[in-house]
Amino acid sequence: MTATTETRTVVPTEMKESRFRKVPIYLTVGVVALLWTIPSLGLLINSFREPSSIRTNGWWTVLGDIFNTATWSLENYRVVLDEGFSNAFANTVAISIPSVVIPITIAAFAAYAFAWMKFPGRNVLFVTVVGLMVVPLQMALIPILRIYTDFDVTGTFPAVWLAHAGFGLPLAVYLLRNYMGSLPASLMESANIDGADHFTIFYRLVIPLSVPVLASFAIFQFLWVWNDYLVALVFLGIDPNVRVLTVELADLAGRGEGALSLLPAAAFVTMILPLVVFFSLQRFFVRGLTAGSVKG
Amino acid sequence: MSTPPLMDHAELDGGPPRHPDGEHVHTFGLWLLRIVSALVLPAVVVVFFLTFGFLKDEDANKAIQVLVAVVVGIGGVWALYWGMDRAISQLPDRSARAVRPFAFVGPAMALLTFYLVYPAVNTLVISFQDKDSEAFVGFDNYIRIFSESKYLISIRNSLVWVILVPLLAVGIGLAFATMADKLSSRVEAFTKSLIFLPMAISFVGAAVVWTFVYGFRPEGFGNQIGVLNGIWTGLGGNPVNWLQTSPWNNLFLMIILVWLQTGFSMVILSSAIKGVPEVLLEAARIDGASEWQAFWKVTFPSISSTIVVVWTTVLITVWKVFDIVFVMTGGLFDTQVIAQTMVEEFFTNFNFGIGAALAVLLFIAVIPVLIINVNRFRAQEATR
Amino acid sequence: MRKFKWLLLLVAFAMIVAACGDDGGDETTTTADAGTTETTAGATATTAGETATTAGGTEALAAEFTLFGAPGGDEGKAIEGFLDAYNAATGSDIVYTGSEDFEAQLRIRVEGGDPPAVAFTPQPASICAFADDGVLVSLEDMGFDIAEMEANHSKFWMDLGLCADGLHYGIPWFPNYKSIIFYHEPTFAAKGYEIPETWDDMISLSQQIVDDGGTPWCFGFESGGATGWAGTDWLEDILVREAGGDVYADWFNHDIPFNDPAVVSAFDTFGELFFAEGFVLGGPENVAGVAFGDAPGPLFNDPEPGCLMMKQGSFITNFFADTANYDAGEESEILTFPFPTIDGNTGAMGGGDTIIVFDGAPANVEAVKAWITTDWQCTLASASGGGVAPYGGHGVAGIERLPGHKDADLGCYETDQAKSFAGAVTAALAANSFVFDASDLMPPEVGQGSFWEAMVNWTRGTAVSEIVDTVEASWP
């Protein structure tokens, strides 16, 4: 499996070894990808099966009989959407968007200052911010809930947005500063000489250049907020009108065996938007996360 | 009002009019600008207040609420910074230069103080208090954590998790990225997406997914519905109760997290690998290095800093994980981990003292990892 | 100098706008307040005595609050149906919220200072914890007649809400019944098996079934993070009969240690049945792996049931339709007999939902007082209320709730099974022999932790002495 015989110096794709030699690689990659897909595949298949058959036998038993229409059913999805998942879906969207946008803006300003402004205490502050990344979220919940209750904001969306903003900030500042710090210093200096102040440099120069990292953090934060269970559970409270998908799903799962047939469909309803978001923004995700740390 | 050439490309974004200090600007414009900027700060506060009132109204249309929230969220925050910046511009140059950075980091610091620093300090205090946070008990909670077997097992398990999961997630991710890199780009993109897919799944959802993998029904209770037992019994074995067989059940729980996290490390490492200059690899090959040697001599050193970042992120995630254990086994059958025990002490047993002590333990244990990262940052700063 | 002037101007502007802002702020506050005032107004109006004529012709206060409880799914819908009937009769607006995370959620809400107005909890142990925090309203303050309550709903249940300050905080609502064993009637009839009266009869019947080539028992203790709880019920039913109600109370109050000989003996008795050769379908070592909801499944196997008996609370009938081989109507083949006597002692073990009141507004109190009367219990009892309920049933088919009042009318129930459970429960309430599931009464470290774990370890052959010592050590 060596490439020593290859002497042509052309574009890398052309340089790849012959397909025949790559059979072991294809096999390994294929097997791993298959292994990774099986759990989700099982869930997907089960979500479209008759409720009783989900409990009676394994999902793989339908593989020999996939064209039998009697096997398939949309019943689970119908019930799940009736059970309040459509409302929960709207709530989750309402919570996710601002919970992504607010911390990004705030973190961008802070990251810029950490990367390109000189001020006393800069390093100490930055290390503190990075350190806050490991504060277990769970221990922040009750003290904040008490304050929220004092101000009567428990159960409101803004309360959850700001909480997500606060909890997401350390990672955001870390990633954004990482990226902004790697922008060429010469660029900033010439802008400065031209008389642009920091605010101008920030929104005219740094923000447009940082789109990849902003997008990648946005995806990160979105996945996190969308899949969050605990923050929503604690700060949104018991009102079913403001329940989010994960809380609804956990509630369904908690009902025991009776809900087993509904769980696959319910789980898919919760996954669908993150999947769409991820696949449409995947390019940015990779670029933004790596640009800061990978240099030649 | 000449535009510096370097910023031409930014012009396309059509932001608000620029406003460098002093002479260039028309007097009337300056006036207007200053009035507006003076208004911004209080206006932002007012808008926030109004929005808040509106958003608290449960009867309001949800779509409109979201729209208002997004507009106020973005617009309001930007206006806030712009207003602060303008206000600072009115200061004498030297003070402005001293104050401006704090206007930039201030809001972030305020949020962090409220949402993370305050609770962290609060937790630290609680960790020295009794069950109901009524009396100080010194180090009693910490002594209990390090003497009672229940907690010791969770510490032991967490250590195994924190070693094995990042190792597997990063190792598989790296191997997969390296191999996929050698395939045609369409195959590569497709297979990578399959590996990344679990990233989009919540922990609660993952628990459901894996019920249909690890599901167990003993003889007499019907067909297997978990695929692992389906295969196992198909091969002639007796059904195995995967999640209740200690110590292997820990490994089966870890596999769930590896499944969730490998995609993340694979995607990032893959792009790092693509960033390794082809020239270097080519040079190594010409020197007679095999692909294996080229990987270890050229690729691996070039991406080592990325590996550190990925490792750190996965490690912190693993360290804080509680959902998987909480849902799948509830920490029974010797599967407890620190974060899950902490949540249990907080929310089931209402033993705030122990819960807080476990939280502090989690925090302290990650400090070495932090130090490594901060040092790496310093190095990056130095080479800039 | 110029800059300074600008600064002044800025401050001036800021102040003007801030003033306007204050106006705006006030405006919003007023709007927000208007909302609150509206509800307060509603509340005040009701306190002032805004009345609505009930179906019965009596005047009732209209209440407006959120009732919080654990039941979800169809069971939750039955509660909603019940509240619909009450709301219609009294002009109230009471909304039900159910959460599977009820215990944690309620604690979070209380810790956060934002409790629901009224809740009903399946964990009586939490009542006094809340009362000690000073967030509950006592029955004495709400004007309940304690002696009457004790007579109607049993002193045992009332005592569960009796806290350190000598006041009562729990209002018994509806129980569930666990001292029952389900069995496959057609097989019993065909083979001539008799319903066992005593523990020893039950052992010999089991042996006979094994000798006939059958499997007598189905067990299932698996329940995710709560695995093991189903086993505690067995032990409790044995203990209360072997050692009596007083020892049982001493046990969950920790007046005797968990490793008391009486507890060890109960484990040993259970072991006579559990570990006997061929008694347990799938083998005792696998019981911890069978989901409790799957346990009744083999009763419905065709053509022969996989096992003939299974013990579980009355609620398990709601799971029948979800088992793999269930056919419509097949539940009529599964009947129940009472848990047999041991040394001549009987008992009724179960659990129950107890109402706790956080907001003692008069209308709330009146609602709660109404709900525990036999009239409203009849609405809660079944979908139709058996045709005798003055306010109709709750309207959710298949859901029946047992009465928490000794004088409940058995005619409120639709199925014979529910009637027989209700009969047993009302008799036990009247005789004050209805005891609660002890694991619900122990501290969470034990009742929701080490006790469950003990049952699991026991099924896998860990020595009893070791098990009870471990639980004892975990008692906080």
Topology (SSEs and partners):
The complex is a heterotrimer of chains A (296), B (384) and C (476).
Chain A: H1 12-15, H2 23-47, H3 51-56, H4 75-116, H5 122-131, H6 138-150, H7 157-180, H8 185-193, H9 198-209, H10 211-227, H11 230-236, H12 245-254, H13 263-291
Chain B: H1 8-11, H2 27-56, H3 62-89, H4 93-126, H5 140-145, H6 149-180, H7 185-196, H8 203-214, H9 227-234, H10 248-274, H11 278-286, H12 291-302, H13 304-320, H14 323-328, H15 338-347, H16 352-365, H17 367-383
Chain C: H1 2-48, E1 51-53, E2 59-61, E3 64-69, H2 73-90, E4 93-98, H3 102-111, E5 118-121, H4 125-132, H5 146-153, H6 155-160, E6 171-177, E7 180-184, H7 185-191, H8 199-211, H9 229-252, H10 261-274, E8 309-311, H11 317-320, E9 334-338, E10 348-357, H12 362-371, H13 374-381, H14 416-430, E11 434-436, H15 444-459, H16 464-474
Helix pairs in contact in C: 9-10, 9-15, 15-16
Short summary:
With 384 residues, chain B is an all-alpha fold. Chain B has helices at 8-11, 27-56, 62-89, 93-126, 140-145, 149-180, 185-196, 203-214, 227-234, 248-274, 278-286, 291-302, 304-320, 323-328, 338-347, 352-365, 367-383.
Task: Let me know the largest β-sheet of chain B.
Answer: none
Share in helix of chain A: over 70%
Based on CA inertia axes, which overall geometry of chain B fits?
globular
Number of strands of chain B: 0
| Broad shape of chain A | globular
Q: Main β-sheet of chain A, in a few words?
A: none
Number of helices of chain B: 17
**Tally of individual helices of chain A:** 13
Regions with little confidence, pLDDT below 50 for 5+ residues of chain A: 1-17, 291-296
Low-pLDDT stretches of chain B: 1-25
Q: How large, in whole angstroms, is the Cα Rg of chain A?
A: 25 Å
Q: Structural class of the helices, strands and pairings of chain A?
A: mainly alpha
Q: Note the quaternary state here.
A: heterotrimer
Q: What is the percentage of strand-forming residues of chain B?
A: under 5%
